[in-house]
Amino acid sequence: MITVTPIRTGSVRVKTAQQAGRDGRSGIGRKIDIFRDPDWSEPLPIFCFLVEHPEGRFLIDTGDTWRNSVPGYLPRWNPFFTKEVVVKVAPHEEVGAQLLAMNLDPSRDIAAVILTHMHHDHAGGLDHFPHTRIMVTRENYEFSRGLRGKIGGCLPQRWPIWFRPELVTLGGPAIGPFVSSHPITSDGRVALVPTPGHVNGHVSVLIRQEELSIFIAADATYAESILRAGKADGVTFDPETAKDTLRRITEYASSTPTIILPSHDPDGPARLAACRTFI
């Protein structure tokens, strides 16, 4: 038996053009659209996900941190941080406090932390896991350390000084339309699959059970409704790759009963509780 528990680590408001970009717009054009967009989303959840498998507990992403509210934590030179996104996290909403409230010790009871990518709202809770195995794709780790990563939402200067993740390359077999994979559990029921586009090296976590799959999409899409519309987000520098990823997710979820769980979809937990699949 595998269980999945969403953990909400605060909220974020973004421009609607960030959630779904206009068709035909380039990566740069989509950034211009975000800055021009007068419309903001409602506060969206920042989810990470606890996966409990017979081999252990796996945390998918770490959410964000209350330190976003501290002056100087976010770089002032980057107008995306200062003008185009509003993150609000209370100290007790951080993932470490929430795991403790579930009677789980972050330093002892998590087999591994799996980062789908290293944007600040997915890697902001790393401080809670100094003794835990942490996995991220090599491609995303290297991208996140560079200038494009810093411009696009990564904060490598805020990573813990002890942070030395296990760098993963997806060299495992194809799963449906996904051309490669990386098993997390020995039975292969929990696996990483490539979902690039939102950012280089982005992965999602596919959990295959007897009767249905659970697809932790992270930021491959902001919501199931946006996935259905086939709309790539405004963050991507590569809209065609992002759209191809959406096509592959849709193909998989149309052939196998699948619950879609993006990281910022308010309806995700209700779909999970009701076992409401994509088809």
How would you portray this structure in words?
- The chain is an alpha/beta fold and 279 residues long.
- The protein has a single domain (3-274), classed as Metallo-beta-lactamase, Chain A (4-Layer Sandwich).
- Helices cover 27% and strands 24% of the residues.
- The chain contains ten helices and twelve strands.
- The protein has helices at 16-19, 27-36, 79-83, 95-101, 120-123, 138-145, 147-152, 224-229, 239-255, 268-274, and strands spanning 3-14, 44-53, 56-60, 85-88, 112-114, 133-137, 166-168, 182-183, 190-194, 203-208, 213-218, 258-262.
- The strands form two sheets. The protein has a seven-stranded mixed β-sheet with strand order 4-1-2-3-5-6-7. A five-stranded mixed β-sheet has the order 8-9-10-11-12.
- Strand 10 and strand 11 form a beta hairpin.
- The longest helix has 17 residues, at 239-255.
Q: Main attributes?
A:
279 residues; alpha/beta; Metallo-beta-lactamase, Chain A; seven-stranded mixed sheet; five-stranded mixed sheet; 27% helix; 24% strand; N-acyl homoserine lactonase family protein
